[in-house]
Amino acid sequence: MNNSLLKHLYSVTSKILLTQTDRINENFEKADKIVIWIVGFSIGIFVLLISQKSDNLIINELTFEISVFSLTVVILGLTFRIFSFFTQMRYSAIVTSFISFAEGFSYTPEIPNVREITEKDSAEDIIGYLKSDFDEVVKDKNVSQMDAENKKVYRGLLLNYYLILNEPRDVEKQLVNFKNNFANHFGFSKAYMDKRINNENRIKRNGIIFRIMLYISMVLFFLTIATFIFGVGTILNQFICQV
């Protein structure tokens, strides 16, 4: 089994994703700081308006508008922070899942193909398989001279011996053992593990949900900034017109 190209692609992609993840986290942190400053400023304005009576007639006339803009910015900012938090969590889960798969695939040793023995394979065939697959030489028992019953029993013994030698190469069985051990250590059920691992529908659904949440986070971020700028601009315009 030669997957050298796939292994290279997975390895390179996982490294790029790690770098990109750091940049995305940095961008989220920068956006979060901007929103925190805007929300903090808006809360401060709102608190001052409701706690103190201004002598400025213009401010008194715009108290309602300022309060609405301030509360709108606070609500949008808090909503953005909630969505950005869950967006980062979703993205982190997707990247971790992909990188785990990519790293496991990239560093998987070449696994020989497992031979499937059917009823059509005779005792002589199995003797040949033991020699070619495991370099096991079986002494000639003159199988051709055995009657049907003895040949059937002897074939069963050879098949059991082949399966014993082949067990360490049985990938499916190894994966089942791994899933069972992992599930036992973390208290998961077998059904839960089967649902989580290699579930293409779930993997695709996570990606779709992430993109939707990312889009919503971006919209909320720009709405927060736009509302703040529009509110400040409106209030400044009122001041200018009244002066």
Give a written overview of the molecule:
The mean pLDDT is 79. The protein has helices at 4-51, 57-61, 63-106, 123-134, 148-166, 171-186, 190-196, 200-242. The relative contact order is 0.12. It is mostly helical and 243 residues long. Helix 1 packs antiparallel against helix 3, helix 1 packs parallel to helix 8 (200-242) and helix 3 (63-106) runs antiparallel to helix 8 (200-242). The longest helix has 48 residues, at 4-51.
Helix and strand topology:
Elements (H helix, E strand, L loop, with lengths): L3 H48 L5 H5 L1 H44 L16 H12 L13 H19 L4 H16 L3 H7 L3 H43 L1
Key phrases:
8 helices; 243 residues; 80% helix; rod-shaped; 0% strand
